[in-house]
Amino acid sequence: MKYDFDEVIDRRGTYSIKWDSGEQLIRKGLAVRVDDDTIPLFTADMDLACPQPVLEALRRVVDHRIFGYSDCTVVPEYYEAVISWFHRRYGWQIEKDEILYVNGTVEALQIAVEAFTQEGDGIIIQRPVYGPFSGTIDNTHRKLINNQLLEHEGYYTINYEDLEQKARDPQNKMMFLCSPHNPVGRVWTPEELRKIAGICRKNDVLLVVDEIHGDIIRKDVRFYPMAAVADTDPMIICTAVNKTFNLAGLQCSNIIIKDPELRETFRAHAGYRAPTPFAIAALIAAYQECDDWVGQMNDYIDGNIQWVLDFLKERMPKVKCARPEGTYILWMDFRGYGLPAEEIRDRIYNRANVILEAGSVFDPEYAEGYERVCLGTRRSLIQEAFERIARQF
Ligand SMILES: Cc1ncc(COP(=O)(O)O)c(C=O)c1O
Fold first, then answer.
1. pLDDT averaged per 10 residues, the chain (length 393)
2. Which atom of ligand 1 is nearest to the CA of 107?
3. Of 3, 119, 192, 392, which has the fewest CB atoms closer than 10 Å, so is most exposed?
4. What CATH code would you report for 17-50+292-391?
5. Three-class SS state of 189
C-alpha cells in the first residue's frame, strides 16, 4: 500500500511531549515561546501515521476490551518477529533466549550501568551525543568520560588514540556507543565498529550499543548491527521498535545479550518487566508486516533531508551541515553567522517561533551555536519552519 506522509495530522491534545508540553519546555529553559503558531521540530519522534498493519493489530487489542497483565515470554510470535527482522534485514542471527524486553532504551542504559559498574566508575561516551547518555551517567553517580568526536566540514569521525587511552584506564568500565549516531548522523562502518569493539574488549570495557536509529538510513548507506560485524562478546545491544515505526509511546525495547552470565546479571537488575498487550501486538505486526512502510518512510525522510540541505545551501549558506547517513536528524552549525548562541536562539525560538534543540544539550562544552532539528514530519511543515528561520538571518 502507498502511504501519504504529506497528510496533516493534528497532534495537539494527544499527550504528546512535542506538541503538548510547551509550558514545561519554557520552565526547563528549552523554549522561550509557545503558542498556537509554534512549530516544534525537536524531540525524536515522527508526526507520520503508523503503518496500517500496526493500527489493525492495535485495534484488535482494543476490540477485545480487556487489558490485563500481559507476558511476552509466552508469545513465540513476539520472539520470531524480532529474530526475523534482524536476520532478514541485516543477516544478524539472534536466539530467543538472548532477547530481554525492557520498557525503553534509556531504561536499558541505566540498568546496564547499575548492573555492571559501581559509583565513581568511568563510562565513556562520544560527544556531541544524545543528552540522556550524560544524564544516565550523572543520575547514577558514575563519571562521564568524553571521547570527543572529531569534526571536519560537518563530518564526524572517531579519535581512536584518545579512545584507546581512556579505555586503558582501569577506572573506566563501560562505553555507550550511539550507532547510528544521534545527533551527528553517522552510520558507523564495519571497520569503525570493529575498531571500537576491539579497543573495548582489549581493555575490559563493557560495550553498550544503542542501535535504536538503525532502521532509519539513507538509501545509499548500509547499517551494520555491531554484533553482526564484531564477534567481540560480551556486549549489550539495545534495539527498539520505538523510532523505526513511530511507536515511542508504547515503550518497547529489546535488549540483546548473547553472553549468558551477563544476560542473567542484567535480568536480575532489570527485575520484572513486561510489555503491554498493545506493545506485543504492535511489535509483531511491525517487524513482520511493515517493511514496505519502512522503505517509504525512509524515502520520505531522504526527501525531507535533501530539501533542507538544498534550502540551506541557497538561502542560509552560512549554516554548515553535512548530509546525515542515518536518523531523521540534522545537526546544524550556525557559528558562521558570528552571533552569540543566545541571539541565534532568540531568532529561531522566539522570532521565527520554531522549537529546535540547542547544541549544548548534546555537548555543553563545544556545541554552542549548533542546533538539532528532527525532520520526521510532513514536508510542508519543515518548509514553513525553514522559511521562517531564514527570514531571521
Ligand atoms: C540514541 C537514542 N537512544 C534512545 C532514545 C530513547 O529511546 P527510548 O524511547 O527507547 O527510551 C533516543 C530518543 O531520542 C535516542 O535518540
1. 96 94 86 92 96 98 97 97 98 97 97 98 98 98 98 96 98 98 98 97 97 97 96 90 97 97 97 96 98 98 98 97 97 97 95 96 96 98 98 97
2. 11
3. 119
4. 3.90.1150.10
5. coil
